[in-house]
From TrEMBL:
This is DNTP triphosphohydrolase. Residues 12-189 form the HD domain. SUPFAM superfamilies: HD-domain/PDEase-like (SSF109604). It comes from Pseudooceanicola sediminis. Coiled coil: none annotated. Pfam families: HD (PF01966). The gene is dgt. One of its GO terms (biological process) is dGTP catabolic process. Keywords: Hydrolase. SMART domains: HDc. GO terms for molecular function: dGTPase activity. Signal peptide: none annotated.
Length: 229
């Protein structure tokens, strides 16, 4: 919808801050309920600092102009391995951003790498002739070593599960990444609704009606599945 000046309009920075706050809130709920759904939850739930770091970093590699910018860069770099925003995030964290030594990135932990690894499949495994207009959901081939290091502690079977795909999309990712993605979806979903209302494209009552109807259909579908089984 375009951008403008003022407190209302979001940027990558304000969006990432909101995602980190939502991610922190989701984690607080999980910590609060941990004793009720799993006695060992404390051992595998992520630290609060890790979730905040992952949420703040999740869009670092995304260029200006959103997905259109990503597609333009991918087309320009197609002969050199292509470009994908999520892969660039991984590259910035592990190589480009200087912390102590150039070329070493910010020294992220394995768990942080896995938290931002939304698509654990190398771009090299795709036929880029089929992805001329937009890049596949993947990471850059140059970061193959980083990903291998991050999953080094997994069993061979779990490594296979992580990179498995279903219908062309990744089938699994880490718990931390699941929290990050949910926080991201909540943040930009609310942004979109606020933008629609603020720009006069729909009224608040219209949006409320659509949401209620969507929830009714979703609940009916879930109930049908439950009663069928």
């Amino acid at each position: 919808m375009g951008t403008g000046e003022g407190d209302f309009h979001r940027t990558r920075l304000t969006h990432s801050i909101e995602v980190s706050q939502i991610g922190y809130g989701l984690l607080e709920v999980l910590h609060f309920k941990k004793a009720r759904f799993h006695k060992d939850a404390q051992d595998w739930l992520p630290a609060r600092d890790l979730i905040e770091a992952a949420c703040l970093a999740h869009d670092l590699g995304h260029p200006p102009f959103g997905h259109k910018g990503e597609q333009a860069l991918h087309k320009a770099m197609l002969r050199h391995g292509g470009f994908v925003g999520n892969g660039q995030t991984l590259r910035i964290l592990t190589k480009l951003e200087k912390y102590k030594e150039r070329g070493k990135g910010l020294y992220p932990t394995r768990r942080l790498v896995l938290a931002v690894l939304k698509y654990p499949r190398s771009m090299e495994t795709f036929n880029l002739d089929s992805y001329v207009k937009k890049p596949p959901k993947s990471f850059h081939q140059d970061e193959e070593g980083v990903v291998t290091w991050a999953i080094d502690g997994f069993s061979a079977a779990d490594q296979e599960r992580l990179i498995a795909s279903a219908d062309g999309k990744r089938a699994h990712h880490s718990l931390d990444c699941s929290i990050l993605e949910l926080a991201d979806d909540i943040a930009y979903g609310v942004h979109d609704i606020e933008d629609i209302v603020a720009r006069g494209l729909a009224t608040a009552s219209d949006v409320e009606k659509e949401i209620v109807e969507a929830f009714k259909k979703m609940i009916a579908s879930v109930w049908m599945d439950l009663t069928r089984n």
